[in-house]
Amino acid sequence: MQYGFIKVCAATPEMRVADVSFNTQKIIEAIKESAAKGSQLTVFPELSVCGYTCGNLFNQPALIKACENALDKIAEATREIKTLVFVGAPIRHDGKLFNCAIAIHSGKILAVIPKTFLPNYGEFYERRYFSSATEVIMDYVSLINNQFVPFTTKILFMASNCPGFTVAAEICEDLWTVQSPSLKHAQKGANIIVNLSCSDETTGKAERRRTLIKAQSDKLVCGYVYCNAGEGESSTDMTFGGHNIIAENGKILNESKLFKNGLLYSEIDVEMLENERCKMAGVYYNDLKEERKEQRGDDGYYRSVFETSKSEEDLSRKISQTPFVPQTGLAERSELVLTIQQKGLEKRLKHTHSKTVLIGVSGGLDSALALLVTCRAFKALGKDLEDIVAVTMPCFGTTKKTKSNSIKLIEALGATAKSVPIATSVLKHFKDIGHDPEDKNVTYENAQARMRTMILMNMANDLGGLVIGTCDLSETALGWSTYNGDHMSMYGVNASVPKTLVKHLIAYEADRLGGDVKRILTSILNTEISPELLPPDENGHIAQKTEDIVGPYVLHDFFIYYAIRYAFPPDKIMFLAENAFAGVYNKKVIKKWLKSFYERFFKHQFKRSSMPDGVKVGSVSLSPRSDWRMPSDAVVNVWLDYFK
After folding, report:
1. Is 587 a catalytic residue?
2. Cα gap 512→85, rounded to integer Å
3. Collapsing DSSP states into helix, strand and coil, what is residue 613?
């Protein structure tokens, strides 16, 4: 797989308790099937070779010997396969029995990893049979054919031909404890943690398991492949559901249905994980003082190097077209974002003792959202909504629809409507500076935007109020604002809200408020996005359509998310966009607007360097005071070289 994507598989095949021969055959079949589908890492459940529920049969040497022989057969079956495989088996060592994960690759057993934390409560009594990894004396074990391999929890498996593909293992209960082995594994460089598990199903346990795995992958900034035992284990006292989960950095990529054995696949982006760790390296790798000495020499970890296969399979994980918009829980997220915007404005109003606020309302999305947020803040503070002065400033490009929607929305919300036509003032200004009004160039457009900002600022001074900005994250990234025009305000409530999310926030408020407000907001949502700085067409409709000029916002928000949030290079963003927008935008169109995005982003950094205050609501902010620090004269050539 290209661009750092590692295809992984959590395999729960059919099994029979203590039937080692049957289980071995099913494991081999699953390895071959997963390899055929491009899996570079395949994980099986805890004690999968014989079954977790063998009970006192673990004390039978015949079973343990059969398991050792089975490992040899499994290893031999992988001789022509470059998939890294983890299976579970009981292993005798140092006169004790251990519950182990066995790493296998290309015909060889690479290492044996014993379980550290043995549950001995409720339905579990592992200490009856097994010893903990903490009791290991010798770090090597002799298996079948006198093959000596590392026997330790402190081992990383590193792909020689795929930077970032570094794996470590823990077993079932190891995850549920306070000091999981994976904590140190991740600090030592493991980007993917595998967990061989046999966790029984009880009411509510699947949700606990899901939450724990998401949290662990988030905290460790890693991929997590959790493979659980399923149907086939003994049901004498427990039932096992084969609940397999593949997670990455706090998100579940794929999850199996309960009580349905099978193979679960997804791709883990180790390149992204490496980038994320680099951002937070000062914290992530800050070991305790007594452990820092290890960094100068032997850190006690083994490194096993292997050569991975190259998966030619298509990306199976779903790439959302709107990464800023949650696929589930949208209403809850919308309420949270609006509340964050509202609370930021509340603080600013209280701090400045502002009598009123001024908002330029255009009949478009951004000004509608800013007005809605302001109304929420005023209600929370117990302030009179009539002290919200919403100003319409019609000029050459204003259409009847947008002007009508503006006035209707202001009145429906209970704010004070003011109308200040600016055409005469702008024409006078053109005369003053010697600009021909027939020349509808950037001066023609920007003079209107700056005139509106000047009016709002002066009215705010006159009324003792604040000018609320309407510019959103997408416009800020593209520089789609007039410097010292709509670019400027006294507080920007939409500063880190992307355009694709703006629509959902307005739709949420429309549903929440209902009535006339909902009808008006629905009309605004169905209006073409436009700055309305050029005259309407012959039918009085909007002629200047923003997305015809700068490109589709759904694409640009996608680019912002991956270029800024994850710092992906252009070719990887192209790869993801082609997957996400297959059948919507072709490669040529995506490439055109991605190139345009980089050109605009670098060219307009000077606007971001002087942008007004505005609260951060999500994972991306372009404020020079918080997330984004970039010189205004940085050169874009490194990024544009990808398009040659």
Report:
1. no
2. 52
3. coil
- 């005071």: which residue's tokens? 625
- pLDDT at site 296: 40
| Euclidean distance between CA atoms 93 and 102, whole angstroms | 14
In whole angstroms, what is the distance from residue 604 CA to residue 434 CA?
Answer: 27
Residue 70, C-beta contacts closer than 8 angstroms, at least 6 positions apart: 20, 21, 23, 24, 49, 89
Whether 196 and 51 have beta carbons less than 8 Å apart is answered as no
Spatial contact of 262 and 12, defined as CB atoms under 8 Å apart: yes
User: The whole model's pTM is what?
Assistant: 0.91
pLDDT of 165: 96
Per the rule left: phi > 0, alpha: psi between -120 and 50, beta: everything else, 73 is alpha
Percentage of the residues of the chain whose pLDDT score is greater than 70: 97
In one-letter notation, the amino acid at residue 611 is M
Determine phi and psi for 107, rounding to 5 degrees. Answer: 90, 0
- Reference 541, options 393, 394, 401; nearest CA is 401
Question: Active site residue: 7, 26, 67, 115, which one?
Answer: 115
**What are residue 100's DSSP bridge partners?**
89, 114
Residue 238's SS3 state is coil
Q: Which two tokens stand for residue 455?
A: 């009016």
The parts of the chain modelled with pLDDT lower than 50 are: 288-290, 292-297
Which residues fall within 8 angstroms of residue 631, CB to CB, at 6 or more apart? Answer: 605
Cβ neighbours of residue 288 closer than 8 Å, sequence gap 6 or more: none
Catalytic choice (54, 100, 172, 375):
172
Collapsing DSSP to helix, strand or coil, 214 comes out as: helix
CA distance 43 to 87: 6
Q: Which 8-state DSSP code applies to residue 116?
A: S
CATH architecture of 5-306: 4-Layer Sandwich (3.60)
Examine the residue annotation and report whether 115 is marked as an active-site residue of this protein: yes
CATH 3.40.50.620 is the classification of domain 330-643: yes
Token digits of residue 179: 């000091």
DSSP state of 135: G
Per-residue tokens: 583: 């059948």
Beta bridge partners of 8: 41, 266
pLDDT at residue 286, rounded to an integer: 58
Q: Write down the pLDDT at residue 235.
A: 86
DSSP element (H, E) containing 114 = strand 108-114
9, 26, 46, 198: which is the annotated catalytic residue?
46
Which DSSP helix (H) or strand (E) runs through 460? helix 442-463
User: Whole-angstrom Cα distance, residue 576 to residue 105?
Assistant: 30
φ and ψ at residue 137, rounded to 5 degrees? -100, -50
Annotation marks residue 172 as catalytic: yes
For residue 468, CA distances in Å to 118, 344, 620 come to: 59, 12, 21
Q: Which amino acid is at 448?
A: Q
Domain definitions of the chain by residue range = 5-306, 330-643
Determine phi and psi for 306, rounding to 5 degrees: -140, 165
> What pLDDT is attached to residue 331?
96
User: 483-495: b or e for each residue (b if 16 or more CB lie within 10 Å)?
Assistant: eebbbbbbbbbbb
| Closest alpha carbon to 151 in 141, 160, 159, 162 | 141
